[in-house]
Amino acid sequence: MIWNKYIFVFVGIVAVVCAGGCGSPGHVREDCAGKVVYEPEHASGFKIFGSDSANSVIIRSYDPWQGAGGVATDLFVRRGGEDVPAGFTGQVVNGNAERIVAMSSTHVAMLDAVGKVSSVVGVSGIGFISNPYIVARRDVIADIGFDGNIDYEALLSLKPDVVLLYGVNGASAMEGKLKELGIPFMYVGDYVEESPVGKAEWLVALAELTGTRDTGVAQIKKISASYNSLKNKVKKCVVKGAPKVLVNTPYSDQWFMPSRNSYIVRLISDAGGEYMYEKNEGNSSVPISIEDAFLLADQADVWINTGTAASMAEIERDCPRFMKTNCVRLGAVYNNNLRSTPAGGNDMFESGTVNPDLVLRDLVKIFNPRLVPDSVPFVYYRKLE
User: What region, left, alpha or beta, does residue 215 occupy, with left being phi > 0 and alpha being psi -120 to 50 degrees?
Assistant: First the structure.
């Protein structure tokens, strides 16, 4: 298998060679990549390009980590022996990817959603993964370690077609070594999406990578319809004041409050709740003092996403002062760790990514319980006792 060398920000072409280049680094002109064959309805971080006369495609990732600021990276999926376009300097996978190393558990969930979890041959932190297929094959699926401490010998032995990467505040530390080893990679930027359905829509990009785009498109349509049906039901049925919602727990003597535009705040709003910290209009969480968090907690009707706590005893241990707040007195404290691995992995951040409709239903059950039958159990959340 021949893999192109990688250049992080580049000019890519499929159907047309653009004389004189295709724009400045990090701002690639889309007309240089051919026709858009899939444009996401909810996600903002990727598009798929191709042409009517070719089976090969480019999967382009936009700003795949926080603060990327105009970065675009391309992966060419080469099919039917078609030539790599002249001048293309991105990543190349020869044929549909059949051997995949997933650096995030969300990648596993997306591949499972399109029926391709069996393509996973390696992961990062197998003990944190909830997926039943992976758990049942712990002895045969390699754990290559974590970004910055990767077992590259084990990675090479897997002979992967592609490694699925993510960045946090910058490019993955694996980039340089993967380039040296000639192993192609693709950035999956689901975590920076603000739309819950937009996060899930990245499964279409992975479906394309594995030759199952039609399956991926059908899945996201189903997910979107289910999510929006419940969201609209909440809008129609909730007429009284929304419950005020506090999120998170202290970290290093600070309390981090997400942006009002963030994924979790959109879920809260769509479920009929009112996020209590409207001041943060940025694109990342901001710290507030414990004193300010206490004042919010004393006004809150519900407190959710309480770190790793599985009981009120743990809340009392970590936040003893907060036991006197309004939301605690009301017995309205919930955490999203109902489905956790022994090592501490949280399935809310794995399968919950491709099941935003189920996450939303859990939150509706918390904020507006009359809209969800008592017989319907929580999937990801639990009430702390």
Answer: alpha
